[in-house]
Amino acid sequence: MKKTVLVLLVLVLAFSAFAQSASETSNGIRVALLTDATGKDDKSFNAAAWRGIEQFYKGEGEGTLYQCITAQSSDDYLPNLKNAAAQGYDLIITTGFTWGDAVEAFAKDYPNQKVIIVDVDYLTQVD
User: Fold this and answer.
1) How many helices (H) and strands (E) are present in the chain, helices listed first?
2) CA distance 70 to 78
């Protein structure tokens, strides 16, 4: 339960930071949730993040404004991050410490892409 509340709080704060720009554009904010093989129905971080995203969009715009991309294995992490960036998502959300290395490597090549990672207890500054 605490994990769910924490994830929802992080998502609300992240989305509120984008709220002004979303209201100023006709397309709104585009968000990609990238999950591990457990998918968006894992009854943990992925499910909580997906609920937060759906609540933010009020269930409208799935596939255009927001989507969930599930990795089949950790080999898909970096390609999925790059794919989401290439598709023009404003915010990419990953959940779970297993994404840590891929997000760090991705951030070095995509310094302007906004990325959230949940359940990582370290910060690395990307120059």
Assistant:
1) 4, 4
2) 12
* pTM reported for the whole predicted model: 0.76
Rg, C-alpha atoms of the chain = 14
Nearest to 15 by CA among 126, 93, 109, 96: 93
Strands 66-70 and 114-118: unpaired
* 39 torsion bin: left (phi>0), alpha (psi -120 to 50), beta (else): left
Look at 1 and 95; give whichever has higher pLDDT: 95
Place 20 in a pLDDT band, splitting at 50, 70 and 90: very low
Residue 62 DSSP class: B
